[in-house]
Write a structure and sequence with these properties.
The protein has helices at about 5, 25, 30-35, 75-85, 105-110, 130-135, 150-160, 200-205, 210-225, 240-255, and strands spanning about 10-15, 40-45, 60, 70, 90-100, 115-120, 135-140, 195, 200. It is of the alpha/beta class. Helix 4 runs parallel beside helix 6. It is elongated. The protein starts with a helix and ends with a helix. Ligand 4GX binds near residues 96, 126, 142, 145 and 148.
Length: about 260
């Protein structure tokens, strides 16, 4: 039993009616580099190639009436069988607004797999019997409605791929990511030192790496309080963070007199 973290390559198979949408995604930036470096091994399967008949129909009208169309189960299960021949150990995930909300923690656990199959639905959805019989988990990228699961699949693959060991260099490591420790990141600055009359914080130009590290931790904490207080609701503070918060309390108390 291998996993991406061990043998360093993750096979991802996407089942979609629009495989062309993925071309530019595979062909740019870090995703392209991951594929070239054999860390990510993608495959798209056109569900329509697995539909029967001269017209290769993949959708049909909903039983019980109503507007919109439903994806037929047979082309989906035939496409899935083809995927499983190549990725026999993969879990089958369906992009759906009814799924469990995707987050960094889910990305971390998916990054430990060595094979994933992502099914992209279109129209009003897919026949429930396909979901019951073949889908291991439903994933939602957020509480909004897309026109298809393809952008959701790209979001999931993008977030997971950068966590595969060796995909990011030390340069852009995932270690300091927003969310990796439950806080948003500190602000970032590059040259020039003054832009639009705004100076880069002096400490970042000081070369004192202990001071810089301390500033970054403090900045991450205050930015999280200001921008994403919800992230702090269930989070415990480290001893160092408690010290920072106590220092602010003293500063505020002395301001109030
Ligand atoms: N996060 N959509 C899927 C069709 C559909 C509906 C039900 C399967 C079951 C979405 C999201 C999303 C719209 C993709 C409906 N397929 N996907 N599509 N939010 O809104 O992932």
């Amino acid at each position: 039993m291998g996993e991406a973290a061990v043998d360093g390559t993750m096979k991802v198979c996407v089942l979609t009616l629009f495989p062309e949408l993925f071309g530019p995604f595979w062909d740019h930036g870090i995703i392209r580099r991951a594929i070239q470096g054999d860390k990510l091994n993608p495959l798209t399967i056109n569900i329509r190639d697995h539909a029967e008949g001269r017209h290769r129909v993949t959708d049909d009208r909903p039983y019980g009436g109503g507007c919109g169309m439903v994806m037929k189960p047979e082309p989906l299960s035939a496409a899935l069988s083809a995927a499983k021949q190549r990725l026999p150990m993969a879990k089958t995930l369906l992009l759906s607004p009814q799924g469990k909300r995707f987050d960094q923690q889910m990305a971390q656990s998916l990054a430990a797999a060595d094979e994933l199959i992502l099914v992209c639905g279109r129209y009003e959805g897919v026949d429930e019997r396909f979901i019951d019989g073949h889908v291991d988990a439903e994933i939602s990228i957020g509480d909004f409605v897309l026109t298809g699961g393809e952008l959701g699949a790209m979001v999931v693959i993008d977030a997971v791929a950068r966590l595969i060991p060796g995909v990011l260099g030390n340069e852009d490591s995932a270690e300091n990511d927003t969310f990796s420790d439950g806080l948003v990141e500190h602000a970032h600055y590059t040259r020039p030192p003054v832009y639009d009359n705004q100076r880069v914080p002096d400490v970042l130009l000081s070369g004192n790496h202990q001071e810089i590290d301390r500033w970054r931790r403090e900045a991450a904490l205050i930015r999280t309080m200001l921008k994403r207080p919800d992230l702090l609701d269930q989070r415990e503070f480290s001893p160092q963070e408690r010290e920072i918060l106590k220092k602010w309390r003293r500063d505020i108390d002395s301001l109030l007199g």
